[in-house]
Design brief:
Elements (H helix, E strand, L loop, with lengths): L8 E2 L26 H16 L4 E11 L5 E11 L7 E8 L7 E5 L7 E6 L4 E4 L27 E11 L2 E10 L6 E9 L5 E8 L4 E8 L2 E3 L3 E3 L2 E6 L5 E11 L18
Antiparallel strand pairs: 1-14, 2-3, 2-16, 3-4, 4-5, 5-6, 6-7, 8-9, 9-10, 10-11, 11-12, 12-15, 13-14, 15-16
């Protein structure tokens, strides 16, 4: 789940043909007789993406709390910018403002629907931009429980999808689907994703490592709707079940329709990010 489109879901329903899911009623998704679990899983993923499209760009602030197994905490403040790219993955930037030892550190992501995403990390202490290789994207982002690959748009084309079941999630009815990375560079063997049936918001993601052990769980909460259309989670909590560590992200100060353009998301411009 990316940290931008993973929770941004447009409200209007896209017209669905007879073979697609019917989310108007609770219970097992409606399906044609020849609809396989794989077809249903893909339909859920594609509809969720369709609802998230069209926002253009936005900026926001993030508060990050890193917590170790003993419960000791460290806090960071970040800014986030994202630019929607038609028919491809989004461009985004994370910029650290606090604490002082990481201030100015910035991560630039060019996500893609096909092929590997491009990621660059600017380290102000070294005054250099470091490219994050595909082999290193399962590594921790700045000591958090979010991996570099968690921060990119989770594009539909980069996974195979399979509908598993319906089950309650809190007061809502959710579908549970499995997605398996197509590429070889992922640190995960598979992920389970919970979408609510009414709005297709993501409420939980379970991550399984390459040995198929349950590695991490991401839970999302505090959804609010922006521009009378887009849903965004206010809180995201990632728990690592193997280490006992966790990272909480709180989102605030959303601004849509800013004056961002491609020039704000270049590798050479990373050193000038303020």
């Amino acid at each position: 789940m990316t940290l931008c489109r993973s929770a941004l879901l447009a409200l209007p329903i896209v017209a669905l043909c007879a073979t697609f899911l019917d989310f108007s009623n609770a219970g097992t998704p409606a399906r044609a007789d020849d609809s396989s679990p794989e077809a249903l899983g893909l339909q859920i993923a594609e509809e969720a993406r369709a609802r998230a499209e069209g926002f253009g760009n936005f900026t926001a602030r993030q508060s990050m709390i890193l917590r170790n197994k003993q419960g000791q905490e460290s806090r960071r403040q970040l800014r986030f910018k994202v630019l929607e790219v038609q028919d491809d993955g989004d461009k985004s930037i994370f910029v650290f403002d606090e604490p002082r030892d990481v201030k100015g550190t910035a991560l630039l992501i060019h996500a893609h629907r096909q092929g590997d995403d491009e990621q660059w990390l600017y380290l102000p202490a070294l005054k250099r931009v470091k490219r994050i290789s595909s082999a290193n994207r399962s590594g921790s982002f700045m000591g958090s429980e979010f991996a570099y690959e968690d921060l990119s748009t989770q594009e539909v084309e980069k996974y195979t999808h399979r509908y598993l079941r319906d089950e309650p999630c809190g007061d809502l009815a959710c579908t549970v689907s499995e997605r398996v990375p197509v590429g070889k560079g992922s640190g995960y063997s598979r992920q389970l994703v919970w979408h609510d049936r009414d709005e297709l918001r993501v409420w939980k993601v379970e991550y399984y490592d390459r040995k198929d052990a349950h590695l991490k769980t991401l839970t999302l909460s505090g959804y609010e709707r922006y521009l009378d259309r887009y849903w965004q989670a206010g809180e995201m909590a990632m728990v690592n079940h193997l280490t006992g560590k966790s990272t909480d992200l709180s989102w605030s100060d959303f601004e849509f329709g800013t004056d961002l353009d491609d020039r704000d998301f270049t590798r050479t411009g990373l050193k000038r990010v303020r």
